[in-house]
Amino acid sequence: MTPPAPTTAPATAATTTPPRVRAVRLGPRSVAALALATAVGVIAFGWPFLAPPTSQLSAHAQDAPWLFAGLLILLVAVVAATISESDLGPKAVAMLGVLAATGAALRPIGAGTAGIEPMFFLLVLSGRVLGPGFGFALGSVTMFASALLTGGVGPWLPFQMLSMGWFAMGAGLLPGPVLLRGRAELLLLAGYGFLASLAYGTVMNLAGWPFMGAGASGISFHPGASVAANLARFVAYCLATSLGWDLGRALCTVVLTCALGPAVLRALRRATRRAAFETPVTFDGPGA
């Protein structure tokens, strides 16, 4: 009597990698609105290097940033309204409110002293877990809420909201959102947090640099100068005014990401699984 042939155990669901769950699914309108806001934002931040010295925009160097600030307010509102139409259900709204309130509460802890701003690491981890669309909305709302708490409302706020939206959205676009875990993911997030924190400070310098008068002639914006000359002035401005703060912010983000990242990532992923964002909310009738 011959023994029965061995059978192969069927593959179970545990061996397959579950797809990534996004709190906000970006549709064509949301992507178009984000692209428009990004394009206008690039112009709003980089116009000193994009406009020729003889243009009327350079002639009104003190007025242009204010005009762009008003335009960015409208664009951020358009993006927020568009994202709200992209399956931003009550669960995602609740998650957005909790994380935005937490980030806004973290900002006054360091008050920007020596670049200690713990809210940045939370936005990196949140954007990583919840996706780029949620990350953009979270970054913008968090910066707006924190400005209300700290009294930082001014013409610079739209620039901060857009920059922070880019900051958190970039974390959601990093590679390996499903397969990459453990130390490799922490290194990726820490590296992104370091570079993005420096980039945030550099971009925000562009919002205030054209306001400098002729008193600091070596580093101030000169409307009639060439692009190369103004770029050299801007680099000198960053080195003289904000590099120390930006490095402090970048190092603080790296330290908090490495120290608290594993616990926060687990908590965010557990909350995302339990929230089941992609499951529609239904209400059973009486007696069901």
List keywords for this structure.
mainly alpha, 288 residues, Arp2/3 complex 21 kDa subunit ARPC3, 66% helix
CATH architecture: Orthogonal Bundle
pLDDT under 50 segments (min length 5)? 6-17
What summary fits the major beta sheet? none
How many domains? 1
The percentage helix is: 55-70%
Compressed to H and E, one letter per element, the order equals HHHHHHHHHH
| CATH uppermost class | Mainly Alpha
Number of strands: 0
User: Structural class, from secondary structure content?
Assistant: mainly alpha
Termini separation comes to 57 Å
What is the overall number of helices?
10
**Share of β-strand residues:** under 5%
* Spatial extent as radius of gyration: 23 Å
Mean pLDDT: 78
Overall body shape:
globular
Annotated CATH topology:
Arp2/3 complex 21 kDa subunit ARPC3
Gist of the model:
This protein is mainly alpha-helical.
Explain what you see.
With 288 residues, the chain is mostly helical. The chain has one domain: Arp2/3 complex 21 kDa subunit ARPC3, CATH 1.10.1760. It contains ten helices and no strands. Helix 7 packs antiparallel against helix 8. The longest helix is centred in the C-terminal third of the chain and has 33 residues. It is globular and about 60 Å long. 36% of the residues are buried. About 4% of the residues have low confidence. Keywords: Membrane, Transmembrane, Transmembrane helix. It comes from Streptomyces murinus. This is Energy-coupling factor transport system substrate-specific component. InterPro entries: ECF_substrate-spec_UCP037395.
